[in-house]
């Protein structure tokens, strides 16, 4: 029935109503009684979500969209393109193909991509869409990915997976063994078909926890988009037992930020009191935990072992936000009343006993404006407030 949605008059209706309010539209009479209106509304909602996230799909004609959750869970084109820039070769098999955004980009760096998807309807949708998008070097298999690997009996340059959490595990601590497929359990099986495995996980996965379940990890990529961490990528090489490299990237409109370091490297940071400039690492670096490494690499001093804020007298090119410190005040009543009470400011709390909400309520500070205030603790364990002007996002 899904291919009935490709009728020209229905496609025209979907395209015309791309900007429509879905809830209002749902109250109208179905102009196409031969199809459930919910299916047509689902296509409109898919186009709306694809507009910014998946511009290639949005721009193409006769694209079919799956359920809302499949669109929400798929990679954005920006993160998929970056992912595909990391690996290349003759063949790649994606064992959790989904809506196929990652495979669209893998098809640009591999001669042949194999898309596996347990949901037969979704597999058919992706095959159809790839024809519309002009992708000719991808083959499609619907069913259990383990069985497909056994049936194909082929060695691949890379295996790619994006394990999903099982429904009964949603409220528990995120562990790879609670996902489908269970990669830690299947790792030896996968190594029968490829020496190189790339695993995508949600940013909620703790790096230490992931490393406790996996072996042969060569590199971990932490990908942020406009300072929001979107995914972790785990490169695994059969037999590898060397140093694990951590690579962070923050994909931005005005230029990407990169920072690399080695996991568990013993580094001794420098500490100091606030100076002229304040540095806050981007979200990907914050997720990585590479705070000692970044301070040493950029010649910065940490304000406190647990604050993850840095300072220097000089301005350096830094992967994160940079501020000029205008006032450094003690967190006490007289200072707060003079400089911040009943004003407007952007508040950040780092290694500080009060929450942002508590501070705003206590001192009647409204959100916004050009002032940026960091409530934190200095190296002498004093509670301080740094009132700053932003230099770099």
Task: Tell me what the structure shows.
The protein contains 15 helices and 18 strands. It is an alpha/beta fold and about 400 residues long. It folds into three domains: about 60 residues; about 190 residues, Vaccinia Virus protein VP39 (Rossmann fold); about 120 residues. A nine-stranded mixed beta sheet has the order 3-2-1-4-7-9-8-10-11. Strands 13-14-12-15-18-17-16 form a seven-stranded mixed beta sheet. The chain has a two-stranded antiparallel sheet with strand order 5-6. Helix 15 links the parallel strand 16 and strand 17. Helix 6 runs parallel beside helix 7. The longest helix is centred in the first third of the chain and has 17 residues. It is globular, with a radius of gyration of 25 Å. The model has no long low-confidence stretch (mean pLDDT about 95).
Give the SSE layout.
Elements: H1 8-16, H2 22-26, H3 37-53, H4 55-59, H5 68-73, H6 77-86, E1 89-94, H7 101-109, E2 110-117, H8 120-133, E3 138-142, H9 145-152, E4 158-161, E5 164-165, E6 179-180, H10 183-190, E7 196-201, H11 207-213, E8 217-225, E9 228-237, E10 245-251, E11 257-262, E12 277-281, H12 283-288, H13 291-297, E13 301-302, E14 310-312, E15 320-330, H14 333-339, E16 344-349, H15 356-363, E17 366-377, E18 383-392
Parallel strand pairs: 1-2, 1-4, 2-3, 4-7, 8-10, 16-17
Antiparallel strand pairs: 5-6, 7-9, 8-9, 10-11, 12-14, 12-15, 13-14, 15-18, 17-18
Helix pairs in contact: 6-7
* Structural class computed from helices and strand pairing: alpha/beta
> What is the correct CATH architecture of the largest domain?
3-Layer(aba) Sandwich
Strand content range: 25-35%
- For the largest beta sheet, what order do the strands appear in spatially? 3-2-1-4-7-9-8-10-11
Considering DSSP H and I runs of 4 or more, what fraction of the residues is helical?
25-40%
Shape descriptor reads: globular
The radius of gyration is 25 Å
**What about the largest sheet?**
9 strands, mixed
Give the CA-CA distance, first to last residue.
Answer: 48 Å
- The average pLDDT score comes to 94
**How many structural units, i.e. domains?**
3
The number of strands is 18
What name goes with the CATH superfamily of the largest domain?
Vaccinia Virus protein VP39
Low-confidence stretches: none
Write down the CATH topology of the largest domain. Answer: Rossmann fold
Q: How large is the count of helical segments?
A: 15
- State the CATH class of the largest domain: Alpha Beta
């Amino acid at each position: 029935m899904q291919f009935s949605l490709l009728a020209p008059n229905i496609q025209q209706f979907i395209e015309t109503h791309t900007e429509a309010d879905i809830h209002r539209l749902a109250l109208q009479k179905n102009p196409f009684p031969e199809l459930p209106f919910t299916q047509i509304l689902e296509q409109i909602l898919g186009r709306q979500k694809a507009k910014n996230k998946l511009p290639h799909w949005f721009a193409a004609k006769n694209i079919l969209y799956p359920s809302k959750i499949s669109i929400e869970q798929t990679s954005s084109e920006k993160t998929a393109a970056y992912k595909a820039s990391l690996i290349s070769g003759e063949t790649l098999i994606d064992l959790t193909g989904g809506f196929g955004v990652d495979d669209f980009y893998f098809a640009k760096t591999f001669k042949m991509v194999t898309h596996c998807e347990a949901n037969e309807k979704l597999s058919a949708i992706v095959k159809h869409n790839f024809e519309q998008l002009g992708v000719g070097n991808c083959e499609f298999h619907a069913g259990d990915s383990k069985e497909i690997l056994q049936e194909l009996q082929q060695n691949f340059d890379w295996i790619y997976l994006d394990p999903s959490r099982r429904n009964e595990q949603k409220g528990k601590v995120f562990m790879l063994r609670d996902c489908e497929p269970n990669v830690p359990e299947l790792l030896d099986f996968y190594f029968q078909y490829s020496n190189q495995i790339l695993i995508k996980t949600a940013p909620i996965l703790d790096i230490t926890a992931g490393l406790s379940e996996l072996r042969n990890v060569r590199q971990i990529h932490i990908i942020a988009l406009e300072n929001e961490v979107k995914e972790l990528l785990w490169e695994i090489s059969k037999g590898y037992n060397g140093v694990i490299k951590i690579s962070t990237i923050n994909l931005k409109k005005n230029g990407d930020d990169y920072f690399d370091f080695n996991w568990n490297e013993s580094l001794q940071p420098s500490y100091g009191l606030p100076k002229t400039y304040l540095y806050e690492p981007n979200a990907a670096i914050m997720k990585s935990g590479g705070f000692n490494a970044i301070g040493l690499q950029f010649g910065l001093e940490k304000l406190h072992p647990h604050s993850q804020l840095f300072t220097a007298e000089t301005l350096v090119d830094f992967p994160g936000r940079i501020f000029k410190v205008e006032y450094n005040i003690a967190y006490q009543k007289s200072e707060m009343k003079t400089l911040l009470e009943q004003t407007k400011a952007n508040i950040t709390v780092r290694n500080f006993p009060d929450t942002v909400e508590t501070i705003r309520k206590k001192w009647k500070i409204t959100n916004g404006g050009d002032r940026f205030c960091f409530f934190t603790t200095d190296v002498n364990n004093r509670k301080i407030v740094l009132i700053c002007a932003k230099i770099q996002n």
